[in-house]
Amino acid sequence: MSTLFDPEPEERSTAVDPGAPLAVRMRPRGLDEVVGQKHLLGPRAPLRRLVEADEPMSLVLYGPPGTGKTTLAHVISLATKRSFVQLSALDAGVKEVRAVIAAAKRELVHGNRRTVLFIDEVHRFSKTQQDSLLSAVEDRIVSLIAATTENPFFSVVSPLLSRSLVLALQSLSDEDVREVLHRAIASDRGLDGAVTLTDEAEEHLLRVAGGDARKALTALESGAGAAMAVSGRAGTATLDLATLETAVAQAAVRYDRQGDQHYDVASALIKSVRGSDVDAALHYLARMVEAGEDPRFIARRLVISASEDIGMADPTALQVAVAAADAVAFIGMPEGHFALAQATVHLATAPKSNALTVAIGESVGDVRAGLAGPVPPGLRDAHYAGAKKLGHGATYSYPHDHPDGVLAQQYPPDALVGRDYYRPTGRGAEAGIGARLARLRAIVRRPR
After folding, report:
1. Residue 129: which pLDDT band, with cuts at 50, 70 and 90?
2. For residue 2, what pLDDT is reported?
3. Is residue 12 scored above 70 in pLDDT?
4. What are phi and psi of 421, to 5 degrees?
5. CB 3.0–4.6 Å: which of 112, 125, 326, 382 could bond 387 by disulfide?
6. Are 199 and 69 members of one domain?
7. Are residues 408 and 428 both part of a single domain?
8. Domain closes at, from 327, 349, 371
9. pLDDT band at 326, cuts 50/70/90?
10. Is 357 domain-assigned?
11. Are 82 and 220 contained in the same domain?
12. What's 209's domain CATH number?
């Protein structure tokens, strides 16, 4: 199914359907109304050049929901002298794509007008469907604007990517979303001043939105309707936190991302993981996620915990935590919370050891206290001219020449011979490591 806008830009109606959703009514009409994405909309940025110079380039817009992919496509349609066709990958196939291309050819030949083809959720197109676009994009019969929430380098075929400019849209900041809300409340296209927001309600809207402008406007519209119903539409209605919570069916999480609670809840998450209380850990994780906490912050804390609190008792813990951080960066939120939950459960149920933390702490402490000393001559670099004359490497024994791969040899400076930093516990994998380490130390430190 497609939507075609044929009139010239100056003839296209900008009338707002009062029955349309608030997010649709507040859709920007020009680049200057677009909130966020300053890296794409600067004076020399490719997106602004496309709109202002009417250049026939194709784009792949990649970013989280609610960051303005559809909005930018509509802004381009209003600002350029082109026909505009919109297809959704959910209900369009090769047949519909070919019909649009055929119409675009006729428009170009007979009307000397190019066509912008906007395809939403292009990652849902099969390889065959995406391949059907190639010749039209190559010959510039259409200027493709493809939108996707998934990494296009995995979800869009390479030939189509090579013919398009890939632009990554960023999640909106709280201040960006706040600006969108204020505009919607004041604008005659929006609520036209019919409601006012309390500070608590505004903060809750920002948390509900999570950087998604469309979600913020949808929640605002629902809350405003409830507030006006309560006030009987007499004068300006006040949208408070209680009314908003009822309208959006989502309780406000008592969590200040900039204040003490940010650190208190994060601390409780890590201490619950350290204490092996998986259920408490999941509770604090849920509070952080629901409050709109930066998932990268959560992932970083879990990665730290994997080494600080678990270490070699379960060497896979760090791998799982790093994989969760990578997954969050790859798929974003809200789906990223599954990976965070998996890492939290793995870490909370893993055997615990702070032996690594103690070892590196004591080692650093000795270095700071001046316990260093010269590197033993046998370990010094012997690869440069003159090194042998200085005796570098002369006494070094190559461990791989020994049948066991380990032999007696002094590795630390004289001041630290016999110093034990790493002392494995008997928990998890460290039980085996401890037994092996005792044998290794006995061999390495044996008098020569």
Report:
1. confident
2. 43
3. no
4. -95, -50
5. 382
6. no
7. yes
8. 349
9. very high
10. no
11. no
12. 1.10.8.60
Which CATH number is 380's domain given?
1.10.3710.10
Mean pLDDT of the chain: 82
Rounded average pLDDT over 194-201: 88
On whether both 265 and 381 belong to a single domain, the answer is no
Domain count, the chain: 4
Final residue belonging to a domain, choices 141, 168, 195: 168
On the question of pLDDT at 303 being above 90, the answer is yes
Region 90-107: what's the mean pLDDT? 85
Which range of residues forms the domain containing residue 376? 363-444
Query: Count of residues for the chain?
Result: 448
pTM: 0.54
207 and 119 together in one domain: no
Residue 380 in this model has a pLDDT that exceeds 50: yes
Domain with residue 272: its CATH number is: 1.20.272.10
The answer to whether residue 42 scores a pLDDT higher than 90 is no
Q: For residues 209, 251, 271 and 292, what is the CA-based torsion angle, rounded to 10 degrees?
A: 0
